[in-house]
Amino acid sequence: MKKIVILMIAFGICLSDPGTDEKKDKACQVADSVGSCNIWSLTSVTQKVGELGEKVVNMAEKMTFLETRLQNTEKELLELRSLTGGSPQVAFSAALRDSGSGDIGPFTTATPLQYKKVFSNTGNSYNPSTGVFTAMVSGMYFFRFSMFNNLASTPNSLVSLTKNSEWLTSVWDTNGSDSNDMGSNAVVIPLKVGDNVFVQLHPNRLVYDDTMNYNTFSGFLLFTM
Questions:
Q1: Range of 62's domain?
Q2: Are residues 102 and 78 in the same domain?
Q3: CB-based contacts of 89: which residues, under 8 Å, 6+ apart?
Q4: Is the residue at 23 inside a domain?
Q5: Mean pLDDT over all residues of the chain?
Q6: CA-CA distances (angstroms) from residue 136 to 116, 130, 141, 194, 224?
Q7: What's the total number of domains in the chain?
């Protein structure tokens, strides 16, 4: 308000005062100074408003991203709770072949066996395309697997239950004249979310299966932790 009054007085002197030229010059200088100050202030305010606008846009984008992540997390949580109304149930059982018969293997490297015939898969933690069970809930789990040898005069079978990259327990048959041998093994282990469990066929080994489903892989959650 003070700036406006000063500006008006200065302009009045500059235009109407019959005084000396020096007086007029000083008045006009005051008017120019006040006018320039107002223009600079307006420019500064405009710049600051623009900067604030950019910050608001950035904050809005971040909020949208966070809201999307929160919605996805809530959806996953609801899907997990919907399994049993709050208490997760996890159980699966599968056999090696869903059709046909014959040996599986040998492979030059250790290979997870893909149990394709799924009997049950509550919680969808087992993936028949990879043969891998992935823990969606931290807890204590039970796993069991069986192995039927390669149905040959010289057996050559070795499989291991594996957690991530750790061999837990194995079944093998690599000597003897009986070509109709099989065995099984089981464990109770703690798992954290994201841990993987699978049955691994060792390099240069093989197993036999047909529609009688001799080779199986099963597991279930005992309790959460």
A1: 56-86
A2: no
A3: 83, 122, 123, 221
A4: no
A5: 81
A6: 21, 16, 12, 6, 11
A7: 2
pLDDT of residue 47: 77
Whether 120 and 70 share a structural domain: no
Task: Say whether both 134 and 70 belong to one domain.
Answer: no
170 shares a domain with 74: no
Q: Do 167 and 218 sit in the same domain of this protein?
A: yes
pLDDT in tens, 113-158: 999 999 999 999 999 999 999 999 999 999 999 999 877 767 788 9
In this prediction the pTM is 0.61
pLDDT 10s digits, 40-65: 667 777 777 777 777 777 888 888 88
Q: Give a yes or no: residue 47 inside a domain.
A: no
Distance, in Å, from the CA atom of 90 to the CA atom of 60, rounded to the nearest integer, reads 39
Calculate the CA dihedral of residues 82, 83, 85, 91 and round it to 10 degrees: -160
> Given this model, what pLDDT does residue 79 score?
64
- Residue 123 to residue 92: CA distance in whole angstroms: 8
**Of 219 and 33, the one with more pLDDT:** 219
